[in-house]
Amino acid sequence: MVVKVDSLQSSIYFSGLGSDELDSIRKYVFEKTAARGEIIIFEGEPAKAIYIVIAGVVKVFKTSADGKEQIIYLARPGDSLNDVPVFGGALGLASAEAMTPVVLYGMKKEDLEVRLQEHPKLGANIIKVLSQRVEQMLSLVEDLSFRRVTGRVAKILLENIEDTNGQRHRLTQQEMAAMAGTAREMIGRSLKLLEDEGKIRLERNRIVITDKEALKEIASVGK
Amino acid sequence: MARMPEIDRSKCNGCGLCVEVCSCKVLMLVGSMVEINEKVECRRCTRWCTMCEMVCPTGAIQCPFDVIIEE
Fold first, then answer.
1. Which of A69, A136, A220, B49 is deepest in the core (most CB within 10 A)?
2. Cα–Cα distance between A201 and B38 in angstroms, integer?
3. CATH of the domain at A175
């Protein structure tokens, strides 16, 4: 396995480091592959290494006691996994599953700690990564509060019902996310919640409103 | 024929993440552009899974829904 310097540079972790620095760092980097559907990190297990996605997509998620899944973020090439528990010295805070065949570069916690002493730029980069993670989490907290997103999704659905002339305004989840001012991941969760509550039914290509009055009530909460 | 995901060619960067995530194998890369494989139907996932739209980093794939009232 050859660790490629340009792949390392694609991550914020190693951006701006010189070729000599990257050359000395890559000795401590290992490659890990995962098949689609494979769990890469288990929530609650000791966090021993950070990972950078080189190819593929990884879903980082938490699961509630009753089996509901909340996606925290999707890690695409250049994004990192497991950094918060590695630096916090804690157990894995979330699980990570390969959504596609995945190639990761990893670095063990103890190796990373030594490299941090040797390369101050690496420390600055890691602060940037962790700041982004805090921003992501705060945004998620905001979205999850007070059912606001579900209310806004209900309103969007009511405003986009096919009219009596059969005029259709088809909606993607991406568009709904932009309209609701939230992440696309939150839209999927809200639609599932509305379906579980019997307000809508998700069919292939169609969202069927089964209880318009109840949906209106939820929409008014989301204002 | 089942409705297919819609591709905005001007936004596709050819990364191939959508092809990898598609369980129906309805998407394929031709050169550096994603294309629909017309020989395959987007039906294997029991409902419009929209994973391709979800993973696309540039918003080049859309899986739209009609919103209707139950009769």
1. B49
2. 28
3. 1.10.10.10
- For A76-96, b/e burial (b = at least 16 CB within 10 A) is bbbbbbbbbbbbeeeebbbbb
Interface ipTM above 0.85: no
The answer to whether residue A100 neighbours chain B at the CB level (below 8 Å) is yes
Question: Could you tell me if residue A129 is inside a domain?
Answer: no
pLDDT tier for residue A212 given thresholds of 50, 70 and 90? very high
Express each pLDDT in B20-71 by its tens digit: 998 888 899 999 899 988 887 766 565 678 889 999 999 899 999 989 988 7
CB contact under 8 A, B64 and A170: yes
At A7, the pLDDT band (50, 70, 90 cuts) reads confident
With beta carbons under 8 A apart, name residues in chain B contacting A36.
Answer: 20-21
Mutation site for B-interface testing, chosen from A99, A189, A200, A215 by largest number of B Cβ within 10 Å? A99
The alpha-carbon gap from B21 to the nearest alpha carbon of chain A, in Å, equals 5
Domain count, chain A: 2
Whether residues A108 and A180 share a domain: the answer is: no
Residue A43 within any structural domain of the chain: yes
Question: Mean of the per-residue pLDDT values for chain B?
Answer: 86
Does the distance separating the beta carbons of A99 and B21 come in below 8 Å? yes
Closest Cβ opposite residue B65 in set A36, A171, A185: A171
Q: Give the whole-number percent of chain A exceeding pLDDT 70.
A: 93
